[in-house]
Write a structure and sequence with these properties.
With 156 residues, the protein is of the alpha+beta class. Helices cover 29% and strands 37% of the residues. The protein has a seven-stranded mixed sheet, with helices on both faces.
Length: 156
Amino acid sequence: MKIKTVDRATAHIYDNLCQAYEAEFSPLTHKQPDANGLFAKDTLLEGNITGYLVYSNDLPAGLAAIKQEEQEAFEVCEFYVVPYYRRHKLGLQFASALFDQMPGNWQIKQIEGADHATAFWRAVVNDYTSGHYQEDSYNDPYWGNVTRQTFSAHKH
């Protein structure tokens, strides 16, 4: 596994993977593709949001968009692993490596109905923190009802 920060040379790879991500969540977000068959992205890589790509055997296997809200406060805005690479712990390793790279307070939100995503994040955060995390539900102004995990990350 190798993680790269998205830059001009890799932005198209990130955008391509975003299309699969948006399509997968379209039943929950109620998004449809435009006339060119493309989905609009919810999170743009600009300002305080950085994109990351994870590679397996030199092939792009997933993406993440991380917002840095303050010096040591982060949010996972987008996270996607290509289905081929799931169940091989790549998502767990990718997320844990990002947490290690950016120590501080984290939050991760899942939209209502994304039960598989909630189960994934509960398992990842429980593993990473040895069960020392909080979970709540609230009404997000953009996403509506969400489940949220919060925890503090420090290098393992």
